[in-house]
Amino acid sequence: MSLRIKQEAVSAGKDWWKWSVWLDGPAEELKKVDHVVYTLHPTFPSPVREIKDQSSQFRLESAGWGEFEIHIEIVPKEGRSTTLKHWLKLGSPATGAAAQRGMTPRQPVVFLSYGVADTTVARTIKSVLKERGVEVIAASDATAGVPFDRTINDMLARSDAVVFVISGRPSLWVARELETAMKLQVPHILPVVLGGSVELPRQLQSYQSVHLEEADGLEEQIRKAAGKWLGEIGRTRG
Q1: Same-domain pairing of 146 and 232
Q2: Contact at 8 Å (CB) between 143 and 151?
Q3: Residue 167 sits in which domain range?
Q4: Exposure check for the chain: N or C terminus, fewer CB within 10 A?
């Protein structure tokens, strides 16, 4: 098989890249392909994407912060599938035009979603993340007089990740923030569970969660979790 993976990446500013990957090769071989399954980094909301459009050479279009390995399964109309790997190359804004202007990449932005009952834990998470150079935003930062839905939509649209603090049934506000985050496909969804018998909302059950025990070592637990979160964000921000 002489089919290979081609890609294109265009900087959209603020460390954000619009990119696409597709199959390249002889037309007669492309005609034999039924569909292509792309498996992205697991932090993507829908990491498995199936493309059936032969006219676009089975092009997948998406966007993100950084580089990672894509697994590609080429499924023919007849015969066995072929699996390829492709490292998505974006380039670093810090070494390009931005660096020439003396600019540095912006700090990651994390939206913190929590209910009133979890305010103390949320404050600790915010403090730990801010110590590590993260901009932490939440519904409490909303501007007075601006519609809540619009404010939350704008905040989530510029967020690299959302930390959901869950200790019971989500409040109405948290549920709306969760719905908006899923709709906007925020790159990282990070559930934090307080207590051992808490059931996560259906939308969060497919994500790897962090379980915290409210004890004297709570801050240290959060620090360990924060290190893991920032590692994940860094790998996909480039």
Answers
A1: yes
A2: yes
A3: 109-237
A4: N
